[in-house]
Amino acid sequence: MAVTTPASPTGSSNTTAKKPDSVALSYVFTDLGAFSGGNSTAYGISENGHVVGTATLSNGSDTHAFEFWNGAMRDLGTLKGAVGSGAFAVNNADVVVGYGNVASTGAFHALRFAATGPVDLNAAASANYSAAEGINEAGQVVGFIQAANPNPNSSVTIVERAFVSNHGAITLLPALGGNSSEATCINNLSQIVGVSDLSGDVVQHAFLYAAGHSKDLGVISGAFSEALHINDSSQVVGVSDANNGGEDAFLYSGGLMQDLGTLGGNLSVGYCINNSGDIVGYSSPIPNNPSTDAFIYSDGVMTDLNDLTMTGAGGHTMDAALAINNAGQIVGEAVVGSSNSTTVHAFLLTPTDKATPPSLSIGLTNAVKLKGDSVTFSATFAGSDPMTYQWYKNGAALAGKTDVALTLTNLQVAASGNYLVKASNLVGEMSSNMTLTVLIPPTFSKSPVNTNALTGKPAKLTVTATGTPPLTYQWQISTDGGTTWSNVIDGLDTATGNTSAMLNFATTILSQSGDQFRCVVTNPGTTSTTAPATLFVGGPPSISVPPVNLSTIQGQDANFTVTATGSPTPTYQWFKGKNLLVGKTASSLTIPGAQPADADTYSVTVANPFKTITAKATLKIIVPPGISKQPVAVSVAPGKSAKFTITATGTAKLSYQWSYSRDGGASWAVIPKANSNTYTIAKTTIAMDGQIFRCGVDNASFLPIYSNEVTLTVGP
To answer: For the domain that residue 411 is a member of, what is the CATH number?
Structure first.
């Protein structure tokens, strides 16, 4: 099995073509376009005219699923990291299904295309390949998926199986006795059609699945048939081997399979049937010629769609009709240009008697915006595609503004005016208009700033604003840090000018310190508010007790403390050298378990809005003596020199004293002048054999510590 797409016709014989001289049908033709000049094919259409399909990208090889609605083709995307996707069906809830490549494996999976992107319908399954080919109004999805072969006697372990998915739960359908099967369509009665291997896996027949059972629909003639679509009257269409040796479209209804014939060649395929019994597909019009034309089969007659009256179809030859809805709208693909052109575009046919001129569903509304804003205007029109749009300002067309929506960014006053959008299609036009007014909001070239005032002295806060006049002012005050605000009243707490650009305080009082003030400026367009400014009333800080220098033994805590006064109450920030100590903002600083790396000059800044002052102190770390490298035992021959060495650490100045023991360490004798980290015996004697040596290390602050005891061995 494979994803079903229009194929090149094959065959060598011909049935009688039903191609009447005159058919009283006419359509409006819409070329749905493609992505970046590539090809496109439409496979499905909903009752509200949403079209889905597949289009190649500009590289000519990768394909993406698309949806066409409201005059525009939208890329439905791919799974993350993948390069390909396709859409085969859409229901009236605009749920789109199809397939997409999986980046990690290169296989393809059945997809449901959601607003947030494609959703893998078998992400949790072990299958490498699957595709969704049909969906009904209940959201049931059908297609095929790789799965384990239910036939234990077959040498093939993995086969393609028809499936139905009920909102995520996948059920595999029984085949017609063979290994592989594929479901192509599901109607609103939950009846499913497709194709299945018969026993032996050589012959494939169309099947109808209903009420838990699969029915073989048989063939017109020969060995092969495939069902491609079923309507809500249980009528099935597809393709079957025919009596002429070729393959013909069929209609299965009432238990009988009817050969629909061809347009004159050796192939026809019935691809879709609506609830009125109208069938569309494609057929070869010339015997033994691989080219095909799109057809509609209605009232017992197969008609080449290219022979009907088409408005807007110039330069196009429809080679396949692949879906038809109950309104008679048809989609498929058409060759663009000459007959040997390789460019094909998706198309939409709307019956002329169904085509409606644009009508206004939701009109434009007047808007007042601010300078610098962005705005999007959009009206909603009903009517038949193709629908085109043109925007106008003050009666003049806006070049390039031909989308249903108009977006204006960084609005300026000059953008003000009367705007109109006109929607047009082949049978009429409709417009909607509005007025846009762009105002300059109040903006501040000068905002109030934090202000310091000595107690009893005057203070003032000012603002400078511009904007569309007239401008009005209102000063506001917050006494709780900006949580709540109230209007300043003239005369309260010596304040005047509460509705002007300047707020004055004749004298300041200590209780005002910390109050915040802002100015609300209003014009006809909007209101703007300055950032708050704080009024500080009081005096600068002073330090009564500065931090003192410290000498701290390694591993003990070091504590600095400062005492200061000021109004408002000062804040503190400690530094080590020039480096700010994050979070150290108390009047004291503790350095726990001080180490040599902590030795430095420490400073603290004491600040309030009036002034910042600094005090400094040093920290010295006293490190007790320690031995990092112990002496080692020495063995020498008599008369040779012997050398003992240690390496010691600690705060300078370190002193050394070597000593020895002749009684195994029970008593020790100081060695005169042995006062460095190295002790050397210039000439050893046999009498020194077995003596033990050690070194004591101390500094001015600590008692001595002793090295390991090591033995001198003197012998031949």
So the answer is: 2.60.40.10
